[in-house]
Amino acid sequence: MWDDVAAAAVDPDILSRRVRFVPARRASQPAATSALVRVLNPGVASTGKARSDVRNGDGGALPASQSAPAGPAPLFPPERLLGMLGWSSVRGAGPGLSNLGQTCFMNAALQALAHLPPLAQLCLSRHHSRGCRVLGWCAYCELEALIVELHGSAARSLAPTAMAGKLRLIARHFRPDRPQDAHEFLLGLLSRMRSAAAEGKCGGGGAADGVGGAEPKCCSSEVDQLFGGSLVSTLTCGVCGGSTTARELSAGLCLGLHKATTVERALRNFTASEPVKGDDSFWCAACAAKVEGTRRLRLGDTPHVLVLQLKRFRYDCARGASKLCHAVQYEEELRPRRDDPR
């Protein structure tokens, strides 16, 4: 088959033919369980009728009102999530988590997640496990069971043995009885939860980086809405003053502490302009040349829960690696300024 495709790709007779697309005369609906087939024209499939405003083979397009299909409905109602950002009832601190041998990094992340009001209340209502479609071990179900136990137990401490036994499913390079990075564990766990929340619901599912499946193709689950945000990167030309902007998804911010003693100052340093010169020079379309300039990162879409990693290690060419042990102050309420170039 591949030989035929390769031959077709270089056959001038085939390339010169005009391909005409016409609306289907009969509805064709793939199986609901198929994740490999996506209906491009759901209106035709559901009614069995071809839209009369589709032009046949003349290179025309759909009217503006129908040229772009509406986005998929959120997997979790955003308005419901807004009502869960605070505790519905007063809860005391739950039990601690036992160290199972170099698992302090895991315990710190799990305790932080267990005491986030929206996530904790979702887990206490067993929102995910009641409709879970994950085959095999599910990180979301595991965390849900642990949070239910943490908020309902009178014990002084609990042992998260089930989660500790699945560390390699959260990150391939994690090994038992070895210290790991808490932030890396948190991001890996959130990635598994995001995949589990979308499993079988939006043409994706499974875990990221190849463990258990592919990354989901939508960003509307409760996990996405809670933790997903974006960063806006702006490059400004030092010659003509023109700028280009790019937006990328972000699951948190890494804040340097070598010039900051407060989280607010670290955020200001993170969003400050920095010079771009030398080997880092970039191409300016207006100047038609590589130029020097400035780069600035800003917060685009801010999530309900902003994950901040405080980078306490720094590297100096003269002294090598060192740890920053000074205290870092933070306010109870943080209001980062949102930047939206649109």
Order of strands in the sheet with most strands: 4-3-9-6
Backbone shape: globular
Roughly how much helix do the residues carry, as a percent range?
A: 25-40%
Distance between the termini: 46 Å
What profile does the largest beta sheet have?
A: 4 strands, antiparallel
Q: Which radius of gyration do the C-alpha atoms yield?
A: 25 Å
- How many beta strands in the DSSP annotation? 12
Beta-sheet strand percentage? 15-25%
Residue runs with pLDDT of under 50 for 5 or more positions: 1-10, 29-39, 42-70, 204-217
Task: Count up the helices.
Answer: 13
Kindly describe this structure.
- The chain is α+β, with helices and mostly antiparallel strands.
- The chain is 29% helix and 15% strand.
- The protein has 13 helices and twelve strands.
- The longest helix is centred in the middle third of the chain and has 17 residues, at 182-198.
- It is globular and about 65 Å long.
List the defining traits of the structure above.
single chain, 342 residues, alpha+beta, 4-stranded antiparallel β-sheet, two-stranded parallel sheet, 13 helices, 12 strands, globular, disordered N terminus
Q: Could you write a compact summary of the structure shown?
A:
This protein is an alpha+beta fold and 342 residues long. It has 13 helices and twelve strands.
